[in-house]
Every structure is written in C-alpha cells, then in structure tokens.
Please model this.
Amino acid sequence: MKKVLYILILAFIAICFGSCDVPNDIPYPIVEGRITAFEVEGQCGENGSGEGSATIDKDLRTVSLFVCDTVDVKKLKVKRIELKSETKNPDVNYQEEIGLMPDSAACLDFAKFPRKRFNAPGSHHDTRMDFSQKVKFILHTYQDYEWTVKVEQIVNREVEVENQVGNAVIDPITHNVVIYVNKEQSLKRLKVHKFSLGGVHGKVSPDPTTQETFDFYDVRQFMVTTGWGEEQSWRVMVCHTEAAMGTTAQAFARTVDAIITGEKPNGTEPVIEYKAEGESAWKTLAQENINSTSTGYSATIPNLSPSTTYNFTVTAGNSKVGEQSFTTTAMLQLENTSLDEWCTDVKNPELLYPWAEGSTPYWGTGNKGATTVGSSNSTPTDDTSTGHGKAAHLESRYIVIKFAAGNIFTGSYLRTDGTNGILGFGRPFKAFPAKLTFDYKYNSETINKVGDEALRYMEGRPDSCQIYITLWHIGENDYEEYNGEKFPLIIRTRPSERHLFSPNDKRVVAYAQLTQGNDVNEWASHTLELKYKDNTRIPTHIQVVASSSKYGDYFTGGVGSTLVLDNLKLHYE
Model:
C-alpha cells in the first residue's frame, strides 16, 4: 500500500511540474558568420607569382587561394583571418565577437590557434595548419556556420632538352619524368636547356643544365630539394620516338579576335602571319601577343573585323604550318533593344507583350501569370532615357493572393501552373560580346511579402532589382524541353519542383549581373562586363533577365518596387 501511495505522489509531482512548463517559443536571432579575408604565408596569384588574394564565396561559404613553391602546405602559417557578422533580423544589433573554431586535425597545435579573428598571430599563437587537403572552420554566432578553405600550391616544373618531341611527362606524385626526343638524338650526349623539377625555387642535384651534355642512356636518378626544404628522389627516363616534332595550329575565332594554339619544336619561337581573305599584304603578329612554352604556344590576334574570313600561317624554326583560315562571328545585337515595341493580346486587353503586333516574340514577361487574376505588371512607359519611344516599366505587385515581380527576359512564358510560372529562358545567339550597357531607374520598397520561409529574415529590408546577362553553350543533348519546345533553361517556380537559374551551371560560357538595392531616381547608365569562363566554347544562346525584385522567383519582395529599363546594347572589343 505504501509503495502504491509513493508512486501516486511521484506522478502528482510530475504533473505539477509539467503544468508549470513555459514554452520557449522566442526564436534566436539569425546572425550569419562570414569570412571576409583570409591570408597565409607564400600567397600568390594562380600562375605562382606575384601577390594573390583569396577568392571568397559567401553563399557556398568557401575560401580558395594559391601559394607559391617556397612554403610547405602541410605546415602552412595562417597570417590573417577577418570575420564579419550579418544580422538577418532587422531588430537585432549583434555586438559579440564571432567565435572561430579551426579543424583540430589540421592544426599543428590546436590549443594555440586563436579562437577569434586576427590580423597577425601573437607570439603565443601557432597558426600552422595542414592544407594538403581542404580544411574546415566553424564560425560561432547564435548559430554555427561551416566554412571550407582550399589551398592550391603552384609548382612550375619545366623540362626542356635538345631535339625534344612534345612536352615532358612529369608526375609530381610518383616523381617520375619521361622525355621523348627524335631518333637521331644521342642519349649519351644530350643538351639540357631547362630542368626545374623542384619549381622555380627548388634545386636539382646533379644539375644537368650546368654541363655541356648529359648522359641519359640509362634511367637517371636526381635528388630534388624543394623551395620549402623537402628532399625528393626523382627518376628521369629519356626515350627515342619515331614521331617528328613539327608545328601545329588550331584557330578559335571570336567576333573581333582569334586565339591560335598549337605545338612547336622546342627552342623555337613561333611567327604568326595573317591577312583578311582577298588581301595581298600579310601582317605579322607582335610577339607580345604570343605566349610560348618549351613545345607549345598560345596567341591572340586582336582588332579583327566581324563576319570576316582570315588566312594565317605559323612558322617555328624550320617547321611551318601551311595557310589555314578562320571566320569571325557576326557582331550581333539583341532584338528590340530600345524596348519600343509592345502589343496587346487580342483576347485580353490587360495582357501586354514586349514585341510588335504580328512579329516573332523575342522577349518574354510574367504578364500571362499576372493577368490570370489581375493586370500586366510589366508594361511600356513614355518615360525613357532617350526622350522618345518606349521603355519597360517593371513593377512588383501583390496580385490578389500572390506577390509578383515585374520582369522581362529573352525567352517565352510557357504556362501558368496554378499560381506558379513555367518559363523558357534564352534565345539563339552566336557571338562574343564584351559588355552589355543599359539605362535604368529604380525605386526600392521595403520587403513586405515573403513567399518562402527560408527568406523570412529578409522581411523589413530594402528590396533589390536584378539585371543579368548570360551566354550559354548548349550541346545537342544539353537542352531542356517543355511540350516540344527546347530552351537552355526551363524555369519552374512551384516550390515542390523549383528549378531556377544558377551562374555556376556548367553550360554557362559567360556571365555578368547588377543587383541594386538603393533608389536611382534619375536615369543612370550601367555597364555589365562579361566574364568568360574559357576560350574553347562558342556561345549558342543569350539570356538577359531584368526583375524589379531579385527574389521574385521565390515570390518575395516589396510591393511597389519599380524598375524602368531602356536602351540596351551589346559592345564588342
């Protein structure tokens, strides 16, 4: 009986305590921790020389940098880390120091690594870390934020011998080198021009470049001391080959220039001559436009005319590439760049299109979605930067049940899916513009509509417009398709199947963007300079997008934010 009474008493106490619980439903403020500067010893540019700065991606939370061949990446000293907090709640003023937690496994002395930002480590600190692999750092605010630091060491190893055929095969992992020479070359008496297996600051023993010739009849072993003091044993093999090392050339023509690349016999400098087809006089490309390695070269022929065929030859020593040709692309422009041409849907006077009646559509808007329950929010206006014609007036509105940003883009509005849009981005385009210029005005309202809880922290902040340009290279199987129509990208805004644009898409050749969060009350001109990812792919499509609210795809922004856009133009140089 006493035992039962005891259990009842315990149960009663538990119920009393449970009834006194006060739910803690007050959320912590969101304060994001960011790395704004990161510096290590031996930091350099991506070519291994000069001074370099870290590339910091605040969205991916990554830091990437290069170091030269004088430092040991397994014992690399961190010289400086700068941190910054960004408050996602407008009513919170975060004053505390951001906490810094390095990866304990990467630290040489974890206990002596600073736990906060520093411009220079103190004498009692030890900031050496092993950066041979990616290293993680945790930044503490109210939350924890993980950042990744990647260090790439540039060791420029170069080997060049007499009568070499092709580039030497240098394996920095196994420390093996294979060099090919033509079959007439003696392996016992081989002249060595360059032999930097340890990089610019490394040493090789014995050094074959100090001798008139060197005996490579058998596999030779060399002791290499790197610039950071590590000793390595390397094996070098020289082999005869039947292949003859001649001069080759491949042309990659753009709109106003062309890139010529190829191989050449070592010890020679290429001479490139060119002329427009039909002309009699040849021009010689200045040597300052040619970059040579021991057996290869890359050259840029500038100041060419668009839509023109050119002939060229390359001579290196006694080897010559016969006359070849390339044709530059046309100097294309966007259609309706003045944004003067607009028409009204024959069935719905509230629905406006950014093209002339009866013409082929080039630009698209979200008006089809907006006019499902309201009127167009991307419309023409007489307020222009040139004083004549029309401009695009893009206004963010709350249309009955949903926020809709005013927008215009090269492509087509394909369908309204419930209250969401499906859009086809991009138009065919084959050219290499350097810049996009345009005139604009912007009125930024406070963000008061949030369509995605992940963006709730933005409520109460100023809205931003966004204008960007993208060049795509779309291969035969790289298209995205909707009901038989093919585009570089099919945009879907429905949250459950959201599919939006990313500048990191591997099909993107070049990209530039403007995000503006301040009012621009008078007409202003802006230039977007395209940054090309590589010089090996020809653009196939162009995409230009302008929106009165940057996060309109997430139905988030400020009602009344207005972007007025006019006078777009592509530039080539």
